[in-house]
Amino acid sequence: MDRKRSILIVGGGTAGWLAAAYLAKFLDLAKHPSLEITLLESPEIGTIGVGEGAFPTMRTTLQFLGIDETRFIRETTATFKQGIRFVDWLQTPTNGHRSHYFHPFEAPFYTEEASLVPYWLLQDERERRPFAEAVTIQNRVADARRGPKRPEEGQFTGPLNYAYHFDAGKLAAMLAERARELGVRHLDGRVTNVSLRQDGAIDSVNTAEHGPLSADLFVDCSGFHAELIGGALGAPFKSARRYLFTDRALACKRPYPDADTPLESFTVATAHPTGWTWDIGLAGARGIGTVYSSAHLDDVAAEQVLETYIGSKADAASPRLIKFDAGYREQQWVKNCVAVGLSAGFLEPLESTGVVLIEAAVSMIAELFPHNGPIDAPAKRFNALMSARFDNIITFLKLHYCLSRREEPFWRDNVDPGSIPERLKELLEQWRYRPPNRYDFILDLESFAFFNYQYILYGMEFRTDLSSGRADFPNVRAAEKLFQKIQMFGERATAELPTHRALIEQIAAAA
């Protein structure tokens, strides 16, 4: 008879329930009585809900879990997300003049013969279209508040790449229901303390309601508390404060003035003197939060920043203060415990990396899960992969800040060479003479592709000088025709695709 392997997940929320559902599905729990997954959730702890957004990878995850897209959109008040619009990141608004650029999910258009990027770089800077508008139709579609697909198109598919905005609490509830369907046992209870074995591994998680709970593998999804990985096992936390200065967020929900208010299909990230403000359009309300550095702004002044953005007193929107330290644990798998979600690390909600880090972690745990032998056999590999992923995300997030021309102290501090990771400095020096390409990055260690870097670089007006190699790009007329086709296709898509709000309402009505 096979030896029983048990997993105890401590903590619910998106991290805990996504881990439970994914592992139950991947390990085919219902058909393997030798496996057992239990999730212990404290009813006293709510969902943080910072950054109610995801990557396009979420579509694959939901599809793998067997969750219907229509139901997901209806039950989590979800909307489609086609990218992020960055407002005022390049320079401080003056005399009513504001700057913005778009980071779409769709890759730049290319042919098998060549990329359009060098031809865009060689165009006259004073006359060329913004980068995202020139190389993809998604910029135009999103600007026109159109959805990325038609309501009759299939689940998780469409002509344009997309992710979602969603209510994090409602997503956790949906994942919990699916996990229980897949055979996960759910316990309500509060951790009182953790008992360790002589070798330093966890022996049991002790609760007031259920007594001691033992397992082969403990998954710490206890959020910022990090009760197992940090509290019991003492895995050190590596701060990214040297590179990322923000450490506070004031978040709230705001209703729409009218039921038919147009819906944006992108996150709006608007810079302010000491950080930035996110604005996410859900089906029934906007999720708004201002992110800032406590070294540059106090909490009372931050409330004023939020009120100014909203246009009214923030009291009515019930803002919630969230304190965090950007960084991660280099040892996220220690002995018989692995951390997922906020207990493993947290980077500011810029680019919505929270959920994709959970997806990456649970996918690795599933693939590396030791059905026999030492339970910590995958730990070294897991830690190396997750640490590299965190480091690379830090590099990508810093790119948004270090190219700014804003003059406020917060932004000047971000441009200081001492605050820029060495890897990013090296890449920026190379990118002065060539655009980012796929050989700059190792796929399994990355959350962002080379073209994501291109969108940020050229949205922030970084200069890549190809002028001395102009003769190496002779297909100028063919490239110009492609640029024109992209514009034409964008106009056609804008005319043919439904408005974002109409699309969401039609999907909800069909459900």
How would you characterize this protein structure?
By secondary structure, the protein is of the alpha+beta class. It is built from 16 helices and 21 strands. It has helices spanning 13-26, 57-65, 69-75, 117-121, 131-135, 138-143, 168-181, 227-232, 299-310, 353-368, 379-402, 409-415, 422-431, 450-459, 476-496, 500-510; strands at residues 5-10, 35-41, 79-81, 83-87, 100-104, 163-165, 185-188, 191-196, 202-207, 211-213, 217-220, 238-239, 248-255, 267-272, 275-281, 285-292, 320-323, 327-328, 333-334, 337-339, 345-346. The strands form five sheets. It has a seven-stranded mixed beta sheet with strand order 5-4-14-15-16-13-17. A six-stranded mixed beta sheet has the order 7-2-1-11-20-19. The longest helix is centred in the C-terminal third of the chain and has 24 residues, at 379-402. It is globular.
Properties at a glance:
single chain; 511 residues; alpha+beta; 7-stranded mixed β-sheet; 6-stranded mixed β-sheet; 16 helices; 21 strands; globular
In short:
It contains 16 helices and 21 strands. It has helices at residues 13-26, 57-65, 69-75, 117-121, 131-135, 138-143, 168-181, 227-232, 299-310, 353-368, 379-402, 409-415, 422-431, 450-459, 476-496, 500-510; strands at 5-10, 35-41, 79-81, 83-87, 100-104, 163-165, 185-188, 191-196, 202-207, 211-213, 217-220, 238-239, 248-255, 267-272, 275-281, 285-292, 320-323, 327-328, 333-334, 337-339, 345-346. With 511 residues, it is an alpha+beta fold.
